[in-house]
Design goal:
Layout lengths: L2 E6 L3 H16 L3 E2 L8 E6 L4 H13 L8 E5 H7 L2 H5 L3 E5 L7 H9 L5 E3 L20 E5 L1 E2 L10 H5 L3 E2 L2 H13 L4 E5 L16 H9 L6 E5 L8 H9 L6 E3 L7 H6 L6 H12 L6 E8 L6 H14 L3 E6 L17 H24 L5 E10 L4 E5 L5 E5 L21 E9 L4 E5 L2
Helix pairs in contact: 8-9, 12-13
The chain binds S-adenosyl-L-homocysteine, iron/sulfur cluster and FE3-S4 cluster (F3S).
The site of iron/sulfur cluster has 9 residues, from helix 6.
């Protein structure tokens, strides 16, 4: 085997795991190719958060059923951990199944595959260390992910993550800070700290940093201009995090705080460990902050037992909080989860109806909120160029897309002329002139 192809599904933690897997494979002498047809080793790094996500990998594997001669197939990530060796039965052309806690053993597993191993599995979750490797191959040259905590110790009734990612393991603060400094030295300007619940971060060294302290320290690394973090669990979210954001403009004024439902009785059924009022207290901290903090969330509609009145409370919560953006999902039954046992599952059509109402309401809120930004000047960090619209693609500290035109830089050319320079990775002050539901547009201020 010489070449590999990898496709990644799921959240940022999976995206970052893939960067580590790619780095590890490259260091073992493999070459990455862009199409599965060209690869000796085809890997899928999978997500199991909802049923649809899980089905994707089996579709991919089915596409190859007949044409798999000479190739080795591997399933990594959350479906691998959840389904384990059953995957070998369901898709007999798969010969590697490995969950995220086993990636440190990838080189060993590759040796077994090279030796003709037909069913190589890495499924142990008792790995007490986070997956740290010197070989990460980062996908983006300007923005880098750093995992600070793996796994999840909560037991939300709907969620597979505690089963697919295992118990919480925090990285040491020196290890996180060394990586941040190294990234700054390499020229990265933005860091995103990752964990399923970053707020339960506990430094295992005697320094004993909590998450707010770690965040402050990463924000002080010379050369880093933006620090983001995701995801926060409301129960463990402390005011010190807001104070840290207020104290240092490097820490982005954006907090993603998944609420899931606006009804306290549904929150209890979900085992979220907070009430609506407790959640709102955290929202109030953000609204009272000196900086203008943008707030985003995740919502599940149609959780078992969710009545029309419960759903109305979620709609009312949207009015009250005025989120800058949200991700919304229909409840999906997941294996092993305690919600399977609950009564009163909501019919599929009803979930769809609620989802549409919720999304429509949020769209109106976003149009209004974004239009409030028209006329202001925001700093945009450039991520790329959109040839269709002729605009540079930027992002504000609040995590809003801000696309803009630049009179002296019409677009990325060959870099030989000033007007042909690629602005990706540069910073500009932009006057916002237009607002849509999902993005802002403007002109550079020179
Ligand atoms: N650790 C994060 C969530 C990770 S999963 C947290 O605690 O907030 C991302 C989102 O997927 C969740 O916030 C939830 O809204 C959604 N989700 C998780 N399980 C789901 C399920 N079974 N059905 C529908 N949505 C789900
Ligand atoms: Fe899932 Fe809850 Fe853990 Fe988030 S906190 S990963 S929703 S169990
Ligand atoms: Fe999906 Fe696993 Fe992330 S289930 S959302 S890839 S932790």
């Amino acid at each position: 085997m010489q070449t590999f192809y990898i496709e990644t599904f799921g959240c940022q933690m999976n995206a970052h795991d893939s960067e580590k897997v790619i780095g590890t494979l490259l260091s073992e002498g493999y070459r990455q190719v862009a199409k599965p047809e060209e690869a000796d080793l085809v890997l899928y790094n999978t997500c199991s958060i909802r049923d649809k996500a899980e089905q994707k990998v089996f579709h991919r594997l089915d596409e190859f059923k007949r044409n798999s001669q000479g190739k080795v197939f591997g399933v990594l990530g959350c479906v691998a951990q959840q389904e384990g060796e059953r995957i070998f039965e369901r898709a007999p052309h798969v010969s590697l199944v490995a969950g995220s806690a086993s990636y440190a053993k990838l080189p060993e597993m590759l040796v077994q595959l090279e030796a003709g191993g037909r069913r190589v599995a890495g499924l142990s979750l008792d790995n007490d260390q986070a997956f740290e490797t010197p070989f990460t191959k980062r996908d983006n040259p300007h923005r880098a992910y750093i995992t600070v905590i793996e796994g999840c110790d909560k037991s939300c009734a709907y969620c597979v993550v505690p089963f697919t990612r295992g118990p919480e393991r925090s990285r040491t603060s020196p290890s996180v800070l060394d990586e941040a400094r190294e990234l700054a030295r390499m020229g990265y300007a933005e860091i995103q700290l990752l964990g399923q619940n970053v707020n339960s971060y506990r430094d295992p060294t005697p320094a004993g940093f909590d998450f707010a302290r770690l965040l402050r320290s990463v924000g002080e690394v010379a050369g880093i201009r933006r620090v983001r973090f995701t995801t926060s669990h409301p129960r463990d979210f402390v005011k010190d995090i807001i104070d840290a954001i207020d104290d240092n403009p490097v820490l982005c004024n954006h907090v993603h705080l998944p609420v899931q439902s606006g009804s306290s009785s549904i929150l209890e059924r979900m085992q979220r460990l907070y009430t609506r009022d407790e959640y709102m207290r955290r929202i109030d901290w953000m609204k009272q902050a000196r900086r203008n903090i943008s707030i985003t969330t995740d919502i599940i509609v149609g959780f078992p037992g969710e009545t029309e009145a419960d759903f109305d409370q979620t709609l009312a919560l949207l009015d009250e909080v005025q989120y800058d953006s949200l991700f919304s999902f229909k409840y999906s039954r997941r294996p092993n989860t305690s919600a399977l046992e609950l009564a009163d599952h909501v019919p599929e059509e009803e979930k769809s109806r609620r989802l549409a109402i919720l999304q429509e309401k949020q769209r109106a809120i976003q149009i209004r909120r974004n239009s409030e930004a028209v006329g202001t000047i925001e700093e945009a960090f450039v991520e790329g160029y959109n040839h269709a619209t002729g605009q540079w693609i930027g992002r504000t500290s609040q995590n809003r897309p801000l696309n803009f035109v630049h009179p002296q830089h019409a677009g990325p050319g060959d870099g030989a002329t000033l007007s042909g320079a690629n602005l990706a990775g540069t910073w500009w002050n932009v006057r916002v002139t237009r607002a849509g539901a999902n993005s802002l547009a403007g002109e550079v201020v020179l």
